[in-house]
Specification:
The chain is 54% helix and 0% strand. The protein is globular. The protein starts with 8 loop residues before the first helix and ends with a helix.
Amino acid sequence: MVALNEMSRDELFAWVADLLAEMFELDRAALTPASNLYADLDIDSIDAVDLAVKLKQMTGKRLQPEVFKTIRTIGDVVDALVGLAQAEPEPQSEAQAV
Protein backbone atom coordinates (compact mmCIF):
# COMPACT_ATOMS: atom_id res chain seq x y z
CA MET A 1 0.00 0.00 0.00
CA VAL A 2 1.12 3.51 -0.78
CA ALA A 3 1.06 5.75 2.31
CA LEU A 4 -0.50 8.92 0.91
CA ASN A 5 -0.03 10.89 4.13
CA GLU A 6 3.73 10.29 4.02
CA MET A 7 4.22 11.75 0.53
CA SER A 8 4.67 15.38 -0.49
CA ARG A 9 2.62 16.83 -3.34
CA ASP A 10 5.70 16.52 -5.63
CA GLU A 11 6.19 12.88 -4.65
CA LEU A 12 2.50 12.20 -5.29
CA PHE A 13 2.75 13.80 -8.73
CA ALA A 14 5.80 11.70 -9.60
CA TRP A 15 4.02 8.56 -8.40
CA VAL A 16 0.83 9.34 -10.36
CA ALA A 17 2.78 10.27 -13.49
CA ASP A 18 4.78 7.03 -13.30
CA LEU A 19 1.54 5.08 -12.83
CA LEU A 20 -0.13 6.78 -15.81
CA ALA A 21 2.93 6.23 -18.00
CA GLU A 22 2.95 2.55 -17.09
CA MET A 23 -0.80 1.93 -17.36
CA PHE A 24 -1.41 3.80 -20.59
CA GLU A 25 2.02 3.59 -22.28
CA LEU A 26 2.58 7.36 -22.13
CA ASP A 27 5.82 9.30 -22.42
CA ARG A 28 6.66 9.99 -18.77
CA ALA A 29 8.77 13.03 -19.67
CA ALA A 30 5.76 14.70 -21.33
CA LEU A 31 3.51 14.45 -18.26
CA THR A 32 2.95 17.61 -16.21
CA PRO A 33 0.43 18.55 -13.52
CA ALA A 34 -1.47 20.51 -16.19
CA SER A 35 -1.72 17.54 -18.58
CA ASN A 36 -5.41 16.95 -19.33
CA LEU A 37 -6.23 13.26 -18.99
CA TYR A 38 -8.77 13.34 -21.79
CA ALA A 39 -7.57 15.98 -24.27
CA ASP A 40 -3.79 15.64 -23.88
CA LEU A 41 -3.35 12.00 -22.87
CA ASP A 42 -6.26 10.47 -24.82
CA ILE A 43 -7.60 8.66 -21.76
CA ASP A 44 -11.24 7.67 -22.19
CA SER A 45 -13.91 7.07 -19.55
CA ILE A 46 -13.13 3.34 -19.33
CA ASP A 47 -9.43 4.15 -18.79
CA ALA A 48 -10.42 6.68 -16.10
CA VAL A 49 -12.38 3.99 -14.25
CA ASP A 50 -9.39 1.64 -14.57
CA LEU A 51 -7.23 4.39 -13.05
CA ALA A 52 -9.65 4.86 -10.15
CA VAL A 53 -9.66 1.11 -9.49
CA LYS A 54 -5.85 0.98 -9.61
CA LEU A 55 -5.56 3.94 -7.20
CA LYS A 56 -7.92 2.18 -4.77
CA GLN A 57 -5.90 -1.04 -5.01
CA MET A 58 -2.62 0.78 -4.40
CA THR A 59 -3.78 3.16 -1.65
CA GLY A 60 -6.64 1.29 0.00
CA LYS A 61 -8.65 4.51 -0.37
CA ARG A 62 -11.61 5.03 -2.70
CA LEU A 63 -12.17 8.30 -4.55
CA GLN A 64 -15.72 9.46 -3.97
CA PRO A 65 -17.80 9.63 -7.19
CA GLU A 66 -18.35 13.39 -6.84
CA VAL A 67 -14.56 13.92 -6.59
CA PHE A 68 -13.85 11.48 -9.42
CA LYS A 69 -16.19 13.40 -11.75
CA THR A 70 -14.24 16.65 -11.24
CA ILE A 71 -10.84 15.22 -12.20
CA ARG A 72 -9.53 16.59 -15.50
CA THR A 73 -5.75 16.90 -15.10
CA ILE A 74 -2.92 15.01 -13.44
CA GLY A 75 -2.84 17.84 -10.91
CA ASP A 76 -6.51 17.13 -10.12
CA VAL A 77 -5.61 13.48 -9.42
CA VAL A 78 -2.86 14.65 -7.05
CA ASP A 79 -5.28 17.05 -5.33
CA ALA A 80 -7.82 14.24 -4.89
CA LEU A 81 -5.14 12.00 -3.36
CA VAL A 82 -4.05 14.81 -1.01
CA GLY A 83 -7.70 15.10 0.04
CA LEU A 84 -7.85 11.37 0.72
CA ALA A 85 -4.67 11.56 2.80
CA GLN A 86 -6.08 14.42 4.87
CA ALA A 87 -9.32 12.51 5.40
CA GLU A 88 -7.47 9.57 6.96
CA PRO A 89 -8.28 9.20 10.65
CA GLU A 90 -5.44 9.76 13.09
CA PRO A 91 -3.96 6.46 14.28
CA GLN A 92 -5.14 5.60 17.76
CA SER A 93 -2.81 4.35 20.44
CA GLU A 94 -3.74 1.06 22.07
CA ALA A 95 -4.80 2.91 25.24
CA GLN A 96 -7.27 5.02 23.24
CA ALA A 97 -8.60 2.01 21.35
CA VAL A 98 -9.49 0.10 24.52
